[in-house]
Amino acid sequence: MKHLKICAMIFALLQTTNIVIAQTSSTKTTVKTITQTETTITDADTTVKVTEKYVRPAVPVVAPSIMKYLVNAYPEYTVLVKAINAIEMNATFEANGPVTVFAPRNRAFSNIRTSNINKMLKPEMRDSLKGILTYMIVAGNWKTEDLTQKIKEGGGSYSLPTVGGTGNLNFVLNGDVVFIKDNRGNQFALGKPVTTGTGIIYPVDKLLLP
């Protein structure tokens, strides 16, 4: 009889307790668990302690946009971010679907004098600067494995048009490493890609020139 009393009290408690089930998703999620203090149920001769546990629903983690990533990757891309802001080209990275950016880190500008970089950022150089920046962007999400497959299908090379329309970027394989080549014959290996909410970024340590 005593056991029946205990079961009845626990059942009554469960009837008045909201149960929350965490949902899962294919995206990355953050789940936080809260354990409340123990609840005591008492009658004349029996005390039962029940610990209630609540789980908050999973919250999707939204990847940053390309621009937010470049800004937050300080100081790796400070020169590039200044150049993008100088010609108000932020929207190019956010609009019209995903893009793949071959983004020059600061060391890519190491052979250029500071005075020449400052000159490049002036309003009168806007068109020239825009031509350089749009040459390093192609439409779509291009993962390393996708580029590798296209290179093999193309007999050893593959080309993609840039969003600026100033020429193509060319890709070849050296062993298992993908190399990128610009219109002037400059060729170097791609860095490890970073996937963002608006596309893919490949860090590069040399400037790509149309």
Automatic annotation (TrEMBL):
Keywords annotated in UniProt: Signal
InterPro entries cross-referenced by the UniProt entry: Adhesion/Biosynth-related (IPR050904), FAS1_dom_sf (IPR036378), FAS1_domain (IPR000782)
Protein name: FAS1 domain-containing protein
Organism of derivation: Taibaiella lutea
Domain FAS1: 64-208
Keyword Signal tagged: yes
Signal peptide: 1-22
PROSITE patterns tied to this protein: FAS1
Pfam families reported in the protein's UniProt record: Fasciclin
